[in-house]
Structure formats: C-alpha cells, structure tokens
Amino acid sequence: MGEFGAAVMLATLRYYDARRGVHRELAGALAEPEVVRALTEGDVSTAVSTAGLTLVLAGATDLAGRYFDAAVEAAKRRGELVMLGSMLTYRGYLHIYRGDLAAAEDDLRQPPTLVSYGRDQPIPAFYQSYLAEVLVERGELEDAEAALAQLGLGEEVAVRTYLIPFLVARGKLRVARRDLQRARDDFERLGRHVEAFGIANPSFAAWRSHLALVPAGLGERERARTLAEEEVELARTWGAPRAIGVALRAHGLVLGGAGGLASLREAVEVLESSPARLELARALVDLGAALRRANQRAESRDYLRRGLELAHRSGAGALEELAQAELAATGARPRRPVVSGVDALTPSERRVAEMAAENMTNKDIAQALFVTPKTVEVHLSSVYRKLDISSRSQLASALRGD
Q1: Cα(83)–Cα(103) distance, rounded to whole angstroms?
Q2: Same domain for 189 and 96?
Q3: Which residues, 6 or more positions from 377, have their beta carbon under 8 angstroms from its beta carbon?
Q4: CA distance 168 to 256
C-alpha cells in the first residue's frame, strides 16, 4: 500500500469515526510526523483536508494548527493551488473554531483564483460559508449576505455534505436579521442533510442547538427541550469540550429557571478547558444575562464583563454589543475593553508582531501568512498604537512587557 496509501486509509477511517461521533481519542494519530508528511507531500487527495478537519473536530486545535501550517507550506512549495486554497479555507475554519475571527478572515480573504474553479464544488462552498460566518459574528450582515450570494444557491439546496456549512451560515445570518421563520427552515434543512449522511456528531453541525434556540410557538417548546437534551447526550459521547459546551448552553437557555442556570454554569465550566474562546464568551454573556433576569445582579456583572472582554478580543462585534447592553441593564457602567498593551493584541496582530520582532520584512511576513503586505502594514500600525511604540526595534521588548 505504501506510506501515502496507509495515511489516506488512516485519515479516512478517523474522519468517518468523527462523523459517527466515536473514537475521538484516536484522532491524534493524524498529527504524527510521518502521517503529516505522507499526506502533504503525496498526491492531492481529499484525505489531506479530512485529516485536518478531524483534528479540529476532536478539539486538538494545536495539532490541527501545525498540520495546516505544514500543508500550506507544502502546497506553496509545490505550486498546488487547489490544495493551497483548500488548506487556507480549512485553516480559516480552525480559527473560527478557536474564536479568532481576525485570523480566520486573514486566511479566508485569500486570492479568489484559489477557490474559483466552479461553484458546484466543495471548496468554494466552504470558503464563502466560513467567510460569511465570520462576518455575521462581526455584525457585518450585508457583507455576509454578499459572500453567500456568490454561490448562487436558491432557497432549497442540494443534499451535499459540502453545503452543510452554507446552511449553518445562512441560518445564523437570518437569526441575526430576525428573519426567524426562514432561519428555522434552514436549520430544519440542516438537520435533514446531516441525518441523510449518517452524521451523528454535533461538532460537525450543531443543528439541534441552532434550531432549539430559534423562538417558536408554544407547541414547539417541548421539542426544543428534547432537541437540546439529545445534543448534550451526543456531544458527551464524542467528548470534545467545545461541542459539550455549545450543547449545554442551548439546553440552559431552552430550559430556563434553576435548571437552566445549572446548565449554563456547566457550559462555562466545560468551555474554560476548551480552546473555543468565542463560545466561552457566548456562554458567559448568556449566563450573566440569565442571572440578571433572576435578580442576581452582582454575580451577573462578573460574567458579563468577562464575556465582554473575550468577545472584544475575538473580534465578535455583535456579541460585544449584546454584552454591553446586558451590563447596562444591570445598572453597571460597562467597562471599556482592553485597548492597549500586549493583552489588547488580537491573535493575528500578535503573530505579525512576533514575526516582525524576529526581523522578518513585511514582504516575508505576508508570504509566510499568505496575506498582502498591506494587511501586514495595517496589523503593525495597530500593534504600534496598542503597545505605544514607534518602531520595529521596540517590538521585542514591548512584547515581553518590559
């Protein structure tokens, strides 16, 4: 079979385990150096993408980050533009999973030529859908709608696995626009598509949580609770903290009362151990809001302030606005998010600053991160302002906090 064939077989097996939501503990084998080398240096194969995606879904984000970095470099070196577009798109999804929207946008604002080889293909659908999801989180709804419109899809979409992220993004956009009936329609479609492919793992698409949280008539409340409970059980079976936290948050919001508060507290506790900072921010804001409604205002403020800070660092403008409003409703003056110092840097700014501190030129940084030199300039300008410095030579000491 050879090293490449064995690696493809391993990636395929672990990917289908992930779809079924079993054997999460085996996913780490995909990050073994010999497996990464075989996949990224061998023939172009969908296994290259599915191996990285499986690591993300398993919550092994550090391993996934190293995997995608290696794959991006291999694609650049070999001039494999299709593979490069695919790897940058999936690395963008990894950043969404972590809650680093700026880094996600860096990867998803890649040259359109890398993903323009036909609309009825997986990578353009993933690319536009992930980009739209980032824009929805930022509160840039017009741009999100424009990103999805480029796919030219109608209300009904074909049953394809690569259109699952499209339905997630369009459903979220419609929720943000308060177009709730059509959002419910999308999440119902999402559930049918997921089940048609035998996907039981909510890490792929938490359709039950999405659907349960869209307001419905009185007769739907029992179904919402059932959906939320099912997703908690499935997420616990898979075992990834992010999936469990997302499901518990939905369960807490649907259940309400003391039981709902208990689920929201558990969601925060589970997500604390997860790399998913944006989902933690969401759970903190929801717990704080629930405590405010339960007239526990002093405790609610602590959670809301933490959620506000994390939402700001993630670049999630829509959640940041909600946290500000909830804090104001407690009678507190919302504390300004950190706007200066090392802690104020976004992950993308930090990455660029560290490279610049190592005497890499803007051009070298742009090539390494596959962004434009202009993007590097924008990041560095923001870094200088936040660190209160005026030159590259001051970066190293400023990053150390000297």
Answers
A1: 19
A2: no
A3: 362
A4: 25
Q: How is residue 6 written in tokens?
A: 């064995």
Q: Which residues of 200-213 are buried (b: 16+ CB within 10 A; e: fewer)?
A: bbbbbbbbbbbbbb
Cβ 171 vs Cβ 350: under 8 Å:
no
End-of-domain residue from the set 147, 171, 205: 205
The string of pLDDT tens digits covering residues 391-402 is 899 999 999 876
Q: Please, are residues 93 and 85 in contact by the beta-carbon 8 Å criterion? A: no
Is the same domain home to 2 and 112?
Answer: yes
Closest-CA residue to 199 (of 11, 19, 58): 19
- Maximum pairwise Cα distance, the chain: 67
This prediction's pTM = 0.84
DSSP code of 288? H
Cα 246 to Cα 41, 234, 253, 315, 317, distances in angstroms: 36, 12, 11, 19, 19
pLDDT (tens digit per residue) in 293-330: 999 999 999 999 999 999 988 989 899 999 999 999 99
Is position 185 within any domain? yes
Taking the CA atoms of residue 50, residue 52, residue 56 and residue 61 in that order, the dihedral angle to the nearest 10 degrees is 170
